[in-house]
């Protein structure tokens, strides 16, 4: 079973407008509501790929109930802990599409690029007794289960919560994947996570350098292995991804051709695809193939990619 933990899940309210103006009333061209949060994104794509996933975390209020119900409709098992106060946050994501008329005018050249804006909610307070309930759920995990820890930690939780979880599960043999920001990621390496997924900019920031070549990415990915990580997957947007696996083999995949229409969830989809590929085939090379296809499929889609889109890109990439 693949488990995900999302400490600060959300309902994502995604709206499309034309030529966003900050000094006027903007009307939407389209609007959608999705179950959000990095762990939730992983759970949905895992489910889309035909594997069983169970999403864990906390929910509060009517927004939390709606979020959990959406995940179930996407095929995920869920076991969120209800909170007595507050509400699961709402994140507003605005996509502004520049009109053709505006984009063609030389005077408006600086405004001719499509833009995205985000306003993310804070989330509810999480008391200690609810954290203990989450730990009880995690204690039920067994050897060879996979646990995905991803995303930021809300300020209502201790900043070492990832470390607490990994220490607790250290002797069981659970394979843990971590996709988090610089400090969170570095602090868990001592527990030898099965997979970590920084992007190339985050990898450089960890060591105070700017990475400008594949060779440098590989060099610093190996440093993370020396610090404890088993497999290091580095996403590089349009330059594809590099994997340094636990056998010290280095793999690279370029992305398929396509038009990027969505920046939300592509990295989470890559993690989901990688895990699904590895659990299905036992091959790190094919895991990277699956991860690249899933990440790209989401980038080419308005939200998280479905099985058909991922399979089509898998076929395309396999022929390269």
Overview of this structure, please?
- The chain starts with a strand and ends with a helix.
- By secondary structure, the protein is α/β, with parallel strands linked by helices.
- α1 crosses α9 (266-281) and α9 runs antiparallel to α10.
- It is globular and about 55 Å long.
- It is built from eleven helices and 13 strands.
- The strands form two sheets. It has a nine-stranded mixed sheet, sandwiched between helices. It has a four-stranded mixed sheet with strand order 3-2-6-7.
- The protein is 38% helix and 23% strand.
- β12 (241-244) and β13 (250-253) form a beta hairpin.
- The model is unreliable at 100-112 (pLDDT under 50).
Largest sheet features: 9 strands, mixed
Order of helices and strands: EEEHEHEEHEHEHEHEHHEEEHHH
Head-to-tail CA distance between termini:
32 Å
Uncertain ranges:
100-112
Structural class: alpha/beta
Number of helical stretches of at least 4 residues:
11
Mean pLDDT: 90
User: Looking at the structure, what is the overall shape?
Assistant: globular
